[in-house]
Inverse folding.
């Protein structure tokens, strides 16, 4: 099968994602500043994300840096 890997810092791209179909296969990468280790999590496993996007758009949550603080 074909696999595609794309990276972005664009809130517009995040806005196109559908929670029901895309979040399980869309990953958030985070580098631990203390250890240098990189962690990858599917969006479905980011604690509190569902609640955050229930109050704001996913694009706003991403653009405001909410995910940087949660991880």
């Amino acid at each position: 099968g074909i696999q595609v890997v794309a990276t972005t810092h664009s809130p517009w791209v995040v806005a196109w994602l559908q929670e029901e179909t895309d979040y399980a296969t869309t990953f958030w990468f985070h580098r631990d500043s203390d250890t240098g280790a990189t962690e990858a999590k599917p969006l479905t496993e980011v604690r509190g994300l569902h609640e955050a996007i229930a109050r704001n758009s996913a694009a706003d949550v991403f653009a405001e840096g909410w995910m940087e603080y949660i991880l």
User: Anything to note?
Assistant: Strands lie at 27-31, 38-42.
